[in-house]
Amino acid sequence: MPNLLATLSEMHRPGLLLRAARLAALSPDAHRRAGRRPVGALLAEEQALNAARLGGGLGYSPTRHVEVMSAILSAARNQS
């Protein structure tokens, strides 16, 4: 992803989700998750999770959404 920070700045997500993801991004687990999967795959999964959140889908997992967002934030931190 050429400009991950720009992509993140264009996202509009709930404050609670972002605060939880920022805290989780400080853990070594987030760094591992960010290194295991390409950023593009993480962004695609995050978009799917956000669509499920907005649609009220039964398959939505807030925990998974925080995990994926924290991995994205960790990747962005490593990229900059």
Structural class: mainly alpha
Helix content: over 70%
Roughly what is the average pLDDT, rounded to an integer?
Answer: 88
What's the β-strand tally?
0
Low-confidence stretches: none
Beta-strand content bin: under 5%
Cα(first) to Cα(last) distance is 12 Å
Number of domains: 1
Q: C-alpha Rg, in Å?
A: 12 Å
| Run of helices and strands | HHHHH
Largest sheet: none
Shape: globular
**DSSP helix count?**
5
Task: Give me a quick take on this structure.
It is built from five helices and no strands.
SSE topology:
Layout: H1 4-10, H2 15-25, H3 28-36, H4 39-55, H5 62-79
Helix pairs in contact: 2-5, 3-5, 4-5
What do you see in this structure?
The protein is mostly helical. The protein has one domain (4-79). The protein contains 5 helices and no strands. It has helices at 4-10, 15-25, 28-36, 39-55, 62-79. The two termini are 12 Å apart. 25% of the residues are buried. The mean pLDDT is 88.
What attributes characterize this protein structure?
80 residues; mainly alpha; 5 helices; 78% helix
